[in-house]
């Protein structure tokens, strides 16, 4: 029999220790180290043998080989293929994480059904639900006619043995990896050792057989995929399925992708018939915006190769606290602090005695610094009460000196704005020559002070007719 060794493993980061201790030195978490018994194994999961064994020579291949199959297989779910980089790669392993109830299983059963209708063998392994429960979801989505093979199993050795029989599957879905267990580890399912060992067995099967494997992962309270971080390094791609409870859309974002870009997003809308693709997310994010309220600006952003227009909402109100509040939803709080400092130092906009609330409408999270100009415009508009033009878009990066720096893909941003009915754009000065023939009235600004003066002037111009009418 294989010997079993006792180790102490941190359930948060996967660090191992020779004895128990209260605090993990790797991640700093308290009371996360648990005792686990691991069977001593050799290469490939076989029991370790006494003494040293000589290695086996293997054949080497060149770079000029010819693949016998297509490099990618499209799932016919356009938004999913976009994030994957064009489709599923043969032998790839993808980890998808998301909050409970966000729609991970719904998305994967829809993709499995479409791929199975194309004639490919697709196997859906559920470790959390029974076969009857998966069938109920498929019946609700109208997918019962799709030839998807189902099973409710948690032992990875039995799963690999079953998948190895017959035709190699084109796609295997494991829902979820935290429920899988292997005979080589003497610990409960869901522990760090079990998750790591089970993932290794499934990854080895994918590389040898050429089947694409999708692993569903649980997430922690802070949105990180639960389990050891080493699993994210073992797989080829890590996807995050995001969504807010108060919104009906979902966003699939690539955190890591060895076979495609990591800045693409896929947008879906949750309906009674499952997830529906949203080919033009700008219309979804701009729906229902208030055109006559101050403190709102439309930002023309980029998510990978796709331009996305989203509304930036700002509220500046006098504060009764010694330290004013700074609340941000959907943007970097440190970036907001920088923009406020630049407005104070170079534009004379004093916000030290005001509470500042910033929100990206629709629940989208923006990471690029090109939103600096739109955020600054929304803040000044809210403070002064001047309403920004409803047909204008803003984009540009603000430097610490107050200058507005150019951003990439200006022409694509303006083209999307033109398609949605916008007629003017406020852009950096250097980006004027990159806009091309978009048909928009482009206003170039060299510094943030120019933008602040224009907004203040427009607010004064609106107040004068009101005063004249009152007289």
UniProtKB/TrEMBL annotation:
ATP binds at residues 98-105. GO terms for molecular function: ATP binding; ATP-dependent DNA damage sensor activity; damaged DNA binding; hydrolase activity; zinc ion binding. The keyword Ribonucleoprotein does not apply. Pfam families: AAA_25, ChlI, Zn_ribbon_LapB. Residues 355-471 are annotated as: Lon-protease-like. InterPro entries: AAA+_ATPase (IPR003593), DNA_repair_RadA (IPR004504), P-loop_NTPase (IPR027417), RecA_ATP-bd (IPR020588), Ribosomal_Su5_D2-typ_SF (IPR020568), Ribsml_uS5_D2-typ_fold_subgr (IPR014721), Rubredoxin_2 (IPR041166). The keyword Hydrolase applies. Plays a role in repairing double-strand DNA breaks, probably involving stabilizing or processing branched DNA or blocked replication forks. DNA-dependent ATPase involved in processing of recombination intermediates, plays a role in repairing DNA breaks. Stimulates the branch migration of RecA-mediated strand transfer reactions, allowing the 3' invading strand to extend heteroduplex DNA faster. Binds ssDNA in the presence of ADP but not other nucleotides, has ATPase activity that is stimulated by ssDNA and various branched DNA structures, but inhibited by SSB. Does not have RecA's homology-searching function. Belongs to the RecA family. RadA subfamily. The middle region has homology to RecA with ATPase motifs including the RadA KNRFG motif, while the C-terminus is homologous to Lon protease. This is DNA repair protein RadA. It comes from Phreatobacter cathodiphilus.
């Amino acid at each position: 029999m294989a010997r079993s060794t006792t180790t102490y493993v941190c359930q948060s980061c996967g660090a191992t220790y020779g004895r128990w201790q209260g605090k993990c030195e790797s991640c700093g978490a308290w009371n996360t180290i648990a005792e686990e018994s691991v069977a001593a194994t050799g290469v490939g999961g076989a029991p370790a043998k006494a003494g040293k064994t000589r290695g086996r020579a293997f054949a080497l291949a060149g770079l000029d080989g010819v693949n016998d199959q297509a490099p990618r297989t499209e799932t016919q779910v356009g938004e999913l293929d976009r994030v994957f980089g064009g489709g599923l790669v043969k032998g790839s392993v993808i980890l998808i994480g998301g909050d409970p109830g966000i729609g991970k299983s719904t998305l994967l059963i829809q993709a499995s059904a479409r791929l199975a209708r194309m004639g490919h063998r697709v196997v859906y392994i559920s470790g959390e639900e029974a076969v009857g429960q998966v069938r109920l979801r498929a019946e609700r989505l109208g997918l019962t006619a799709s030839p998807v093979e189902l099973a409710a199993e948690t032992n990875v050795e039995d799963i690999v043995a079953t998948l190895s029989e017959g035709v190699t599957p084109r796609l295997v879905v494991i829902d979820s990896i935290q429920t899988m267990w292997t005979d080589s580890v003497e610990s409960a399912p869901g522990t760090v050792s079990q998750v790591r060992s089970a993932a290794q067995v499934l990854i080895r099967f994918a590389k040898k057989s050429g089947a694409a494997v999708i692993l569903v992962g649980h997430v922690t309270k802070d949105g990180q995929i639960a389990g050891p971080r080493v699993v994210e390094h073992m797989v080829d791609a890590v996807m995050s399925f995001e969504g807010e409870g108060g919104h009906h859309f979902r966003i699939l974002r690539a955190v890591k992708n060895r076979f495609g870009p990591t800045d693409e997003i896929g947008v879906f809308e949750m309906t009674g018939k499952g997830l529906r693709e949203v080919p033009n997310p700008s219309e979804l994010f701009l729906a229902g915006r208030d055109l006559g309220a101050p403190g709102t600006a439309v930002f023309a952003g980029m998510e990978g190769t796709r331009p996305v227009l989203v509304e930036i909402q700002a509220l500046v109100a006098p504060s009764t606290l010694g330290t004013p509040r700074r609340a941000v939803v959907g943007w970097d709080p440190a970036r907001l602090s920088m923009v406020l400092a630049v407005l104070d130092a170079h534009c004379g906009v004093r916000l030290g005695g005001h509470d500042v609330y910033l929100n990206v409408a629709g629940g989208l999270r923006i990471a690029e610094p090109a939103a600096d100009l739109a955020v600054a415009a929304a803040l000044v508009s809210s403070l002064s009460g001047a309403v920004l033009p409803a047909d204008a878009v803003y984009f540009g990066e603000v430097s610490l000196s107050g200058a507005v720096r150019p951003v990439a893909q200006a022409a694509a941003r303006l083209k999307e704005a033109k398609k949605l009915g916008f007629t003017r754009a406020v852009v950096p000065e250097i980006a004027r020559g990159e806009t091309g023939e978009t048909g928009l009235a482009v206003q170039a600004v060299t510094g943030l002070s120019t933008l602040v003066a224009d907004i203040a002037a427009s607010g004064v111009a609106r107040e004068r007719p009101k005063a004249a009418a009152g007289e």
